[in-house]
Amino acid sequence: MDKTQTIKASAQTLGLTHTKISLDEILHTAQENDYSHLDLIGYILDCEITYRQDKAREKRIKEAGFPYPKYLKDFDLSFCKAISKKQFKQLSELAWIDGIYNLILSGPPGVGKTHLAIGLGYQACEEGYKVSYTTMQSLIKTLRTEEIDRHAGVKMRRIRASNLLIIDEVGYLPINATEGNMFFQLISELQERTAIIITTNKGFEEWTEFLGDAALATAILDRLAYQCDKIPMNGKSYRLENRKSFLEEMA
Ligand code: ADP
Ligand code: MG
């Protein structure tokens, strides 16, 4: 084995993946820039750290289970009158995740609830938080099957270990008493441990209706509202306002 082969094998043994796969590039850069021994060692370690951080971030994003990417930078605040610049900045800074605050985004379809929730989730992944995204419908199915389905078990374990849980589309479909109780158990369990973002098309007075039980609805809302920002996003649909008409485009 020549020297580079030996070094690559040692890097692999030590788990220095970047050094192993990029040794030739590293040596090339060092030669081009006339690195001293110290420069080179520093460079190798820095590259390895960056590589690991990137990998860890990608893994967090993958495991969060977002249906598609949405970013805060693309969220047009001038369109969303419900949120002030200051509030948006505070939300983006994510201190509320450490403070275990919840966020309830309510409003009609198309106003940007899911965009904002996923955007905050992505930002949280970037900054090292463990995030889980689920729709309410999928969450209920997962809760129902967690004991018998391995995937559901894994998903629930991940949800319970998350710093931030996003539950999208709460209230779109009614749930029965057993499911309502499971949901309540989960919310109680996560209280004081996990920040939760809920998006819903229902006003609070309508929660009783889709949960089918006034006492349960009150109990769940009571838990969620303990440390919570409620943001009613009652503007116009971004989709409808920004839809491009085929005829307009052709004109
Ligand atoms: P909701 O979840 O409230 O039904 P979405 O978040 O799915 O709405 O938004 C619908 C579409 O409009 C998405 O493509 C989203 O990216 C876009 N959108 C909504 N609000 C905004 C906004 N304020 N700035 C940029 N895009 C927006
Ligand atoms: Mg949505």
UniProtKB/TrEMBL annotation:
GO terms of biological process kind: DNA replication
A Pfam family reported for this protein in Swiss-Prot or TrEMBL: IstB_IS21
Superkingdom in the source lineage: Bacteria
Domain AAA+ ATPase residue range list: 99-232
Family annotation (NCBIfam families): IS21_help_AAA
Family: Belongs to the IS21/IS1162 putative ATP-binding protein family.
Protein known as: DNA replication protein DnaC
